[in-house]
Amino acid sequence: MIGQEREGINKGAGNSIFREKKLFFMGFGLGALLFVLIFGIRVLDVTNDSWIFALPDPDIEQHYIGWVHFRKAPWGLPLGLMNSLSYPYSMSVLWTDSIPIVAILFKAIEGILPETFQYLGWYGLLSMALTGGFATLLVKKVTGNRVLSLIAVFVYSLSFPIQQRMFYHTTLTAHWLILLPLLLWLDDFRDRPLGRKCLVWGLLSFLGVTIHPYLWAMGELLLIFALLEELLSGGRIGHVAITFLCTIGAALFGLWLEGAFYGSVNAGWPIGGFESNFNTFFNSLGDGKVFPAFPLQVGFQYEGFGYLGAGVLLLLAISGIFLLVKAIRTLSYGKRTGDGKPLLSLRRKLLLLAFLVFFLAAVFPKISFNEALIFELPMPDAVKRFFGIFRSNGRFIWVADYLLMTFSFWGISRIRGSEKEDKDLSSAPDKGTLTAGGEAVPLIICLCCALLQLYDMSDNLQKKHEVFTASYTEAHCDLDQPAFIAALKPYHHLVMTYSAHLDNMRFAYFAGCRGLTINRFYFARDIDERTDARLQEYYEDAFQGNIEEDCLYLLNRDSYEAAWKKCPLYFYDVGGTIVGAPKPLPGCLPYEPG
User: Fold this and answer.
1) 498-505 contacts: CB < 8 A, separation 24 or more?
2) What is the pLDDT of residue 270?
3) Separation of alpha carbons 272 and 325, rounded Å
4) Of 466, 477, 462, which is closest to residue 53 (Cα–Cα)?
């Protein structure tokens, strides 16, 4: 019942919300159903990877190709390393955004997997399902109402940031890694035994960092706020320190396990350009029907996309107005009677502070509104590079989004008609406001706002449905020629001599499917200086006639004319790509310049 939990967002109930297993699985099932309705079931066929290469944005190809190579890489320590995408240098599967913990688990059973195996579809389904499950528990915790918590699934699982990332930066759709730390905080997990806290928070930290470090950072910051509340509430500083150190230790172990500290990658990009714009909460960037696409100060601010949706904005406005009126009445009542009490408990203050911290972290180092740059914080280059560890800091706006969503549901649940609930506002019940409607009023308001939210996102979801259920042309690679494939047996390495993102993806996939290496690939953290230097060595050796017998060289017209045509190689036209070989390739068409 709404109002059953007197303090709601302030104080946890006697029983943990995690006892609500049926409610969790209802939200989980609803989130999974929404996924299937939008994306269909074709993406769930693990033996079908063709749809990945049919999508307009090639980033998802990077995530899948990373797995294709990693599954065939020999085991070693750290477990997440492979050298077949940047041969001869090893890189972590983390830097291909292939969801390292999932990739490692499936690699462990690689021998029983089919030849073609993709897990991105099921990962997307689990992301939306788990988000739905934890959203129901979160909203039930702060409102005490099961119906409101199920309505919330349509808001959380279908949040605009999740839909923006789905099958684009798929690994970043696991927003349950944001909701779960928030839920642990609000459920007073601090009162659990120290060993259990260390185990749960440590496991969550390990999962976060081995799924995506940005999601780990968001969860870790929420943990810090939970620990701060524990400390300020009289908790033992030793317990707080041990809990925090356990999460840091678990994260460091996860990073080591996936090879994040290996390879001397270029992690020093300066921060700036990937932040949130101040219009982010109401800027749909064209994904909504109600609010238009507002301009950005720089194009990469799409990384800080935090559009709440028209339904949530309306719910937030109603909640905010009601709570503001209630606060004014509370202050007035306190002044008249001398019996005032603080409007903000310690937890509410910390939640407000958390919102401000995540919002400021997302817009840092700029204040920009639409295309106008209002202010930019001046920083030395060294400081910019330090913060560049999380260069796409605009993503931190997602936590601010979910805090606002949760606040709006909590606020609307305070609208009720019981005199008992109004006695702290005035000496007599206020019968002239929305509270006269009792529980029906917040339910009706939430339902109407949810319908508005669905209407706002309907065009975007329909477009996604059409993309993922339409027929498509199979992905093509120039090298998919029978004569060329038949001639591959003596060769183990492909050397790409030019830079072209889409060609690189196709060639890397071709290499991965046939157990070949390739010398360059697009990673989230690069080693371009090393791979460029190695390419120069390849060229110098070939030019001098010291050709590596197990290498084939992939060229386009520019790289051929600029340098490689001078090398003593046999050149062939393989489906439009120029291939240089140390020996003749039987059945292949010789390349004729011009």
Assistant:
1) 498/554, 498/555, 498/556, 498/558, 498/559, 500/556, 501/58, 502/58, 503/554, 503/556, 503/577, 505/58, 505/61, 505/62, 505/65
2) 82
3) 39
4) 477
Q: What is the pTM of this model?
A: 0.91
Report how far residue 307's alpha carbon sits from residue 303's, in angstroms, rounded to the nearest whole number: 12
Q: Are 244 and 223 in contact (CB under 8 A)?
A: yes
Helix axes of 59-70 and 501-513: crossing angle, nearest 10 degrees: 30
pLDDT digits (tens, 9 = 90+) for 347-362: 999 999 999 999 999 9
- What is the DSSP secondary structure assignment for residue 496, as one 8-state letter? E
Report the C-alpha gap between 303 and 277 in whole angstroms: 10
pLDDT for 437: 42
* CA dist., res. 448 & res. 418, Å (int): 23
What element of type H or E holds 372? strand 372-376
* The pair of three-digit structure tokens given for residue 185, joined into one six-digit string: 């905080």
Sign of the torsion formed by the C-alpha atoms of 172, 176, 179 and 182? negative
CA distance 93 to 88: 15
- One-character DSSP codes across 520-574: ----SSB-HHHHHHHHHHHHHHHHTT---TTEEEEE-HHHHHHTGGGSS-EEEEE
Q: Long-range contacts for 341-349 (Cβ within 8 Å, ≥24 apart)? A: 341/424, 345/7, 345/10, 345/11, 346/229, 346/232, 346/233, 347/9, 347/10, 347/11, 347/186, 347/229, 348/9, 348/10
Supply 12's token pair. Answer: 């946890």
In the prediction, which pLDDT does 169 show?
A: 94
> So what's the pLDDT on residue 417?
43
- Specify the pLDDT at position 164: 96
Tokens of 324: 């503001």
Q: Quick one: pLDDT at residue 312? A: 98
Q: How far is residue 225's CA from residue 216's CA, in Å, rounded to a whole number?
A: 14
**pLDDT value, residue 344:** 81
pLDDT of residue 421: 41
Please give the Cα distance from 435 to 60 (Å, whole number). 49
Do the Cβ atoms of 567 and 581 come closer than 8 Å? no
CB 71 within 8 A of CB 255: no
Element (H, E) at 373: strand 372-376
**Which residues of the chain fall short of a pLDDT of 50?**
1-13, 417-437
Give the closest residue to 391 by CA, choosing from 354, 362, 360. Answer: 362
**3 state SS of 58:** coil
